[in-house]
Amino acid sequence: MTNVTNFRFEVDADGIALATWDMPGRSMNVITPEVMGELEQIIEKVAGDEAIKGCVITSGKEAFSGGADLTMLQGLGAEYGRLAKEKGEETAMQFFFEESRKLSLLYRRLETSGKPFAAAVHGVCLGGAFELALACHFRVLSDVDSTRVGLPEVKVGLFPGAGGTQRVARLMQTGDALQMLFKGEQIRPLMARNMGLVHAVAPRDAIVQTARDWIKQGGSAVAPWDQKGYKLPSNKVYSAAGMQIWPPANAIYRRETQDNYPAIRAILESVYQGLQLPMDLALKVESRWFAKILRSKEAAAMIRTLFISMQDLNKGARRPKDVPPSSLKKVGVVGAGFMGASVAYVTANAGLNVVLIDRDIEAAEKGKAHSHKLMSDQIMKGRAKTADRDALLSRIKASADYGDLADCDLVIEAVFEDPKVKAEVIGKVEAAIRPDCIFASNTSTLPISGLAKQSKRPDQFIGIHFFSPVEKMMLVEIIMGKETGDKALATALDYVRLIKKTPIVVNDSRGFFANRCVLAYILEGHLMFTEGLPAAMIEQAGKQAGMPVGPLSLNDEVGVDLGLKILRATKAQLGETSIVPEQEELLTTLVEKEGRLGRKNRKGFYDYPEGGQKRLWPGLTDLQAKHVEAELVDMQELKQRLLVTQALEAARTFEEGVITDPREADVGSILGFGFAPYTGGALSYIDFMGAKAFVDLCRSLQAKHGDRFAPPRILLDMAASGDTFYGRAGAKKAA
Ligand code: NAD
């Protein structure tokens, strides 16, 4: 073998080869063209050398591998575009098909090389890397908790195109296989063994030996599906058993995706067609779908936002470079209520010490008890040990004494949303903390620059806006006040990185970024309701558009009363014209006449019966002055209204300089409020449609539904110049 640098290759006295994948200068192995070339050499060496009985593949790193280099796949798309222009669509397509199936062919060569291959896996082994393991004839996983296998490609709009769909569907019942492929979840070792994905689980330092022993004891070099008499786990597609599976599979696909995700549809097609064919042809079918999906705009949008941009933001794309890394050790959280208690938990969970303060020690202890409960739940699920809970709780000091904040590096306040209470707390905290300590507010509605007026050091004052539930929501908005300085920004970003969430940096404005867009979504739902549309159709339109929940349901979650409170505060500050009267009337009736506050009192747009499923409140129709016949409703338009209104708000935040980087709008919109992920986010939705088409759509909605759909200047300019948000951002960076 010549020049193999990404693997170490050795053969032991029994003639068993060990290929240790360990890419120099990288913390994680990824599949690159070089790795593919070297793997090919290894396969040919093992296949061709009579002295070698078989080969174990393992990793020299803490993890096995995260899979293929997605930027390599992005590059393929660019090459396709170039070839299509220069040599025509057919040549480009041919090139694309051949290139995009190289990995699949390589794995098939390994599987049919005539020598047994075994994968010994420790740590994460995902995507193309797990497809490598699946092509091996034997798989053993370490029993360590961090070990995970899975095929998460669907999460970035792709699907497993290197044999994954075919091998998984031949290893387990079709229904289970489809579920695994649709969801793309990471699977723990014992679960993987129970599902039949791997053959064995062993202690970490025994995995290579287990794999070797399997080869030594005559492990077969023929995959089950290449053996004579192999039977599919769910029998043939066209059989009585198959008919139990496929019709519901189509329905489940529709229910789960609303047909918005071509990659998931491609999984369904690949498995359905592939299971009717012998392996080599089945792989070819999978490759054809893969080539098609790789060129889809959904894949391009999702790879860009959910992989590349998210990684950039997580790595600190917005962090001021010249501020040295902060050494955060102790964080103060003031206000141990709903939000503060959770902020204390995620902070302590990241290994930081926390001082949790409330008005009295009982309230502070109550906030700390939240961490006890969360950890106890983890213990019940077998995900943590009692010692972990003890250690985490020992890092949280509940207190009513502001003096305990003296040695904190950062203090986050989450007290009542009342400027007077906030002002008092700011004064008390600043009297107690070190001069270099950063102060952050978790306010969701009060402008940071206004609060900073209460501070003696506004350059050290910043917003760190969490979303609820804090434990689950991955987004954190960092809000820059007018005078916020670089050190405060760097510290806030370092903190968000430590607690493993994704930050976006926004400039001060009412509602910041995420809540502005969310409110637009909810408003549109309310207006559809007051127009007389059936509530069920409004909710369904939200889901079909790709939102996680309908707008009325979302309003119930945040609280119908909170919606009314925000609306009234806006009216008080910005005047009558800043709100929509129909919305105020609807919310006033719901809250003040009907006492329907949302999920919190089990009565909102929905009823929430104890122990039962929520359902739309039958009294809703009585609140509608008119009713539109369901048959006359244009669902497509409802879907458009619900997405366009959010995208427009996102564009306005960009125009106003609240958001300055389209990556943050896109990542923020998906992580913050679940904006239809297949679009790549609220601004990518506009970019992929094209500003001109988007402006035309806005105009037609404006003519029918009013000026809230009027496109702002920035979009008119983009429509005229043919520009995109990303194009403009790129040009600005280059200038
Ligand atoms: P909450 O009422 O549950 O908690 C507030 C806590 O602050 C209470 O425990 C209260 O005792 C304590 N407190 C009040 N005055 C205090 C003082 N002077 N000193 C110390 N403690 C004091 O409220 P919450 O929902 O947790 O909201 C807190 C903040 O977080 C608000 O600014 C809110 O806008 C913001 N926020 C809330 C959400 C949400 O979904 N609830 C989301 C994002 C941000």
Automatic annotation (TrEMBL):
CDD domains on file: crotonase-like (cd06558)
InterPro entries hit by this protein: 3-OHacyl-CoA_DH_CS, 3-OHacyl-CoA_DH_NAD-bd, 3HC_DH_C, 6-PGluconate_DH-like_C_sf, ClpP/crotonase-like_dom_sf, Enoyl-CoA_hydra/iso, FA_oxidation_alpha_subunit, NAD(P)-bd_dom_sf
Record Pfam families: 3HCDH, 3HCDH_N, ECH_1
Entry keyword set: Fatty acid metabolism, Lipid degradation, Lipid metabolism, Lyase, Multifunctional enzyme, NAD, Oxidoreductase
Catalytic reaction annotation: a (3S)-3-hydroxyacyl-CoA + NAD(+) = a 3-oxoacyl-CoA + NADH + H(+)
Family annotation (PANTHER family): TRIFUNCTIONAL ENZYME SUBUNIT ALPHA, TRIFUNCTIONAL ENZYME SUBUNIT ALPHA, MITOCHONDRIAL
Protein name: enoyl-CoA hydratase
